Structures are given as structure tokens and as C-alpha cells.
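Task: fold both queries, return C-alpha cells.
Query 1:
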Amino acid sequence: MNIDKFKTPYKYPSFLLEASGEKGDFSRFGIDIPFVFFHKKQFFMLCTGFNGIGYQSAFAVSDDLLHWKYRNLLLPPDQEKRWDSQNTGCACLLKEYNDLQHLPVLKKFQNKYWMVYESYPENGYEAGAAQIGLAWCEDDNLLEWHRLGEPILSWKDGDEWERGGLYNTCLIFYNDKFYLFYNAKDQNEVWKEQIGVVVSEDMFHWKRICDGPLLTVSENGFDSRFVSNPYLVKTDNKWVMFYFGFDNLHAQEGIAWGKDLLHWIKSEKPILTCGCKGEIDEIHEHKPCVICYNGRLYHFYCGVRKARQGEKNSIYGEVRGICVASSEPFEE
């Protein structure tokens, strides 16, 4: 397949949203995992922040896809001793359209909106083996969300390649079935990360249908250690999966394609690469969300750069935020 039409070589020069550095803020040390959709005449972005202890997600809104303001926080830490009481990182929502040429809007199922999230069992940055949960909302303003009582997918039921935890999902409804694509790591330290899939007819009971990961790492490739964060669309009667690869130095965006949801061919080279020294994505650019609006592609991702002296919003010597690249130049 010719992947040139999916390339977005023009990068917006500044973060759309970035770590705040403010004590007590949900995004003090990072903002991550963009998921963009259109709702009630506005663009929404689902994103996840890290405050130094745990994760919480939020909606941001925009009129032009470039200037964003936070709107409301989601799924706050629970005082009860639930499986997900420590933190919640919301990754995606159920969409109405899979076609890249349609703006993504939300789909209702059982008269509710649905959001997939992961929760880590310990305080800290990706601390412990995460499990995947489901939350629902009947409010068209997307303000009041409710969690199911138990995880819908756990590493405890998986194979060896999943034993380090599951997270960062993409939920697809196609041919009367739900498909949930997810990241899995094989252990908690120096792990390998790959993409799996489960299928459901009711969104509550899920079945693994593949022997092993669906998308695997490539020896000596840009994705030699991680192949992660699937984001799927359909175009020209083919499925396209954006993801990121990591080779122990940099994370960069990749692309795969297939005629169905279970058989994929990966491009050997990344479709979007890290920036030059000093740019906002000089270390990593990863975790894709790609939409088409007014005939141009917008490729949202998390960019990571080196911290500068005195910055309060850095962690582990890095600053991370939400970025965007496009198929056409941005106006100055």
C-alpha cells in the first residue's frame, strides 16, 4: 500500500497542551494519550495527566484543533478500595464511524456513551500491572461518568506476553461485534510491549481470539522493543492502524494495514519521526490519534523533549505534552 497519503510532515511548533508544573494539578508532570472527536459542535480531546502520584484524565475542547482548554476532569480517585481506586487513565471512547473521511463522533450503545480506561494498582509512573475497565455516561454533556464494578480485561487471564499489564486501548464496532485492541507488556521491568485484540458481542464479555500478539516487535527495526498504542481507521476498503514503535532510544509513529482486523502488514519505516534537537518532540513522538477535517489530516501525538534548567513541569529530565502534525502547512 502507498502510505504517502497518510504522512503528516508539517508539525505545529508548540505544544497544544503541556505539563503544568503546578502542585496539585492532574497534569503537573505530563499530559498524554490524545483521543480527538467532535461532539455538540465542538472538538473534544480526551487526554491523561500524571501528577507525580497517579493518573487522571480530562476533556479539553477546541474550535480549531490547535487551541485547547481543559473542560472537566474524569473518574477521580475513589476512596473505596476498588481495583481502580488508585488512578485511572482513559484511552478511548466508542465511536460511530470508523471511516477516516468522517469526523469521529461518539456512538451510543444501550443508550449510553462508553469509555475505556486502565488502572495501575500502585502509586507512581505505570506502577504495577494495569487492568482495563469500562465507564459509561448517559449525560450528553459528558460530565457524569460511572464505572463498572470489575475490570473487563485482565493480564491475569492472559498469556506470558501479557503478564506485565494491559493498557492504552482502541475500541472498534464493526459487523455487529466489538473489537478492543490493547497494549500488553511481558514483565514489569525492561519489558517488551506488543498489541493484542479481544472480541465481544455485548461489550462486557471479551474473548481472546489470537494465539499471541496481533502486532509484534521487529528485530532491529524502529519498533524492536515496543509496538504500541493502536489507533484504527478504515479507508479505501482497507483498515489502517497507526501505532508507535520504540527501539530503546526513540519512540516514533508507525503504520500497518490489512483487509480485515486480524491480519496486518507493517511498514518497515516510521511514518512520523522525532524532531531535531531542541524541538518539542526531540526524544519521542508517540501515541497517535489521526483525524481528517476539511480535507487535511491532523495527526495528534505525545511529544517529549529534554527538560531545560529550572522547569517545574519536568520529570525524569523530560517534558511531555500533546502535539499535532498535518498533511498541509500550518498558517503562520
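Query 1 returned. Query 2:
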Amino acid sequence: MSTEQHEISLDQQVALKGAAQRLAEHFSGTFNKETIERFLVSSYDEFADRATLTNFLPLLAERFAKQRLQALARVEGHGSDGKPIVLFLCVHNAGRSQMALGFFNHHARDRAVAWSGGSEPGTQINPSAIEAMAERGIDITEEYPKPWTEEIVSAADVVVTMGCGDACPYYPGKRYEDWELDDPAGKSVEDVRPVRDEIERRVLELLDELVAVSAKG
């Protein structure tokens, strides 16, 4: 397996083949081998140009490809669990949208699904955001900045934008919310805390609304 844009080492090729096999097993009966490999390779290319630790590229590609394929399956009607999906978008997918994702997953449990993305994804999660969330007992260190893709936006029921303006995708007929929040980039933990708390308040409000609507059928 190779990418169109980047040379990859033998170890990474082996890792990508293993990832493709796991994805094929997960999406057996839904997507064929060619589709899975295409999404895996394009996901790899998304991260290769800005990766600081290339050893993790196959893992990031696998995780992102899985999310994209789950979104595509929903868009194409290959079964749905009925859970509402919220997509949180900001510029670098390193601060606001990652904190929103962390709070949403923490409070939603298995009642709803959240994804996040950025119009210009960064290379790492904001350290102050990580520390601020850790103070609330939520670990976001396993997350990573990533872009949004057409299938991910199409699959979302609600798109929440945070400062990405015209760079954020707009799909007619989809529900959008724009949350005006200070950008945590370059701020201390002390300065990030008020942003964090406001994000949690809005997440809880949105989640309560979505769960109530879902319960009504």
C-alpha cells in the first residue's frame, strides 16, 4: 500500500496493511477493500505534511479513516443507531473544539456522538486546554487536531462552529450553531478556565436538548 503524495517506510507500510485489515473486519459487509484502502491512504496524507512524530502516522490515519467511514456509512444509509451526532469545528482543532468534544463525550456517555475538526488543523492539542480539562477530570491527550471532511459534515445532525468563520463548511438544511468564545491559543491555564466553563455550560444545554428530542422519537 502506498500514498499518492508521500514516500512511506517499510514499517509504515506494514502498519498501514494491518490497519486496512482491521478496518476491513470492522466494516465487513458495508465497504469493500478498495474503499477502505482509499480512505486510509487519504487519511494518512491528511496528516503526513504536518506530522511532528511520523511513527504515529499509521495510527492517526486508521483512527481518522474509521471515523470517516462511520460517517459515510450513516450518510449512505448503512444502518444507524439513531444517536444524534454533533460536530465541533474551530480553526486549529487544538483548543475550543477539543474541549467541547471532551465535555460532550464525558456527559453524553452513550446517548449521543461527537466529532471535532478544524479548518486549519494544528500539530498538537493546546497544553493549557489539556491542563484545564484535566482539572475537571477529563483527559483529552489522546485526541489530535484533524480536518473536517465532506462525509463527516454530511453525517452530523448539528454543526457547532467556534471562530472559523467563512472557512467552516456550510451545507444547506443542516442545523448550525455559532459559539462566540475566546481563542485559548497562547493563553495560560488561568485564562482558559473561563472559556472551558462556558463551553461546558453550552455543551450541557445542547446535549439536554438533543437527548430530549431523541427520546421523543
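Both queries returned. Flag for query 2: Residues 77 and 199 are 32 Å apart (CA to CA).
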